[in-house]
Structure formats: structure tokens, C-alpha cells
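Example record for the data management plan.
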Amino acid sequence: MNTQLEKAIIIKNEPWTPEYHLLEFAAPGISQQAAPGQFVHMKIPDRRDILLRRPFSIFKANSETLSILYKSVGSGTRHMAQLLTGQTVNLMGPLGKGFPVPDTNKKTLLVAGGYGMAALYLTAARAQAPGLLFAGGASKKDILCAQDFVELGWDVRLATEDGSCGMRGLVTTILDAWQSRHKESFEPELFACGPTGMLKAVAHRAKEWNCTAWISLDHYMACGMGACLACVQKINRDGEERLACTCKEGPVFEAREIIWEES
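Corresponding structural encoding:
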């Protein structure tokens, strides 16, 4: 799989929720190669004060187009919200090691926190059979694209900390409830993306349940190519502890490889 620099043309840039926007590009060179869990690096156009590219998980991709979801929180993303259809944007991608194909002999469980739902969509779209999505957030506004998973035939379970959508509580609460009812019936395979605390909790459960979990780490990836060493993660692979660049060897790692910092 070859990383490309591509002049992508904006097809759509519109509000998705009050806080998030959907940005869709015509970028066939990247989109044709995009795998679940990979990301693109985008150069913010017309802003000389923003030197570094910004990493964004690939939400949807087909033979011609790809899309991302982004939250307007800083000067760069606020500027992105003003980009117009037809404008050209410099994209680099697809980058990183994404999620593997789900094992058809296991029950596929996707676990998402907030923005992590977007990064898991391609895994759901390309899986041979629908599984379950467990998604959570602080409130209803943090549940981004649940209907997109429903339209793929997935069983979607939701939780919010304030109870405004789905069950009240953390996403691990509904995950634990499902596992306690089905632990004798299915061997799960977990795919997770979201805040670090959630990822650590999912990895802990995978160890406790003796199952495989694929974890997409939430690190800022400044260069996207493994050169700047800003996104290193301590891992244990084949009995050897070392530092791995999340942008190049990840962002997806098998949970047993990750050495979590003590909190």
C-alpha cells in the first residue's frame, strides 16, 4: 500500500451535528487504497501560520471519494469549516496500520467513544457479517453516526454519561452487560477507538475475558511518517519492550502489546 500526496477536491463540507462537520473529498488515489482504521494528513489551505498537517481518521471511502468527520475546536478546524465545494486541499495518505479483517469465527464487537465512531465505520462496512457496536459519550451530542451503522445492519447499543441518549453510564457498562449474558455463547473480538481511558478499560476487559482486542490509540501524529517521534508508544512485541511510532506501526495495536502508563 503506497502513501500518496493528492490534490483532493472538496465535494461537500457541511454540519453533521452542532459541533462536528462532514468533509468529503474526491481523492481516488487515496480512497481506493484506504483500509479501516487508517488516517489522512491534511494541509490546512490558505493558512501560512499553520505549518503542520492535521491527522484525521478516514470515515467513509470508496473508489472515488473519502470523507472525514472533524470537530471545530481550534483555529485550524474553524478555518476548515469555511472551506467551499470545489476548493482543492492537499492530502497525504492513506497512513498508518489499520484494523484487521474481523475473524468470522468470532463475534465482532466495536467499542467507540465519541469521535471514535467515525474511525470504526469502515470496519463495520467491510465486515462479512454485522456484529454489535457499543458507543458512548458524555451526552447525546457526542453520538455521531449511529444511524449509519444501523443502516449496515449492525446492532447498536448506546450509553451516555448524562442519560440523554441510550443507557446512563459509560460505554463499558453496556459492554459488560452484554458480555455477562453471552460469555458462554460467543467468543468476542473487540475493535476499539476513543479516549485513552476507554481504550485502557477495553484492553483490561480483553485480558480478563481472554479474547483479542484491537486498539486504535489516540495520539497526536505530527508528521504521520514516523520521523518526528512525537507519537511514540511503549509496546511489548515478541517479548521485547520498545517504543513504536503510533503513526507508522499503529494507530492500531493488539491490546496485549500495549504497555499502558500508570495513572
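Summary line stored alongside the record: The mean pLDDT is 93.
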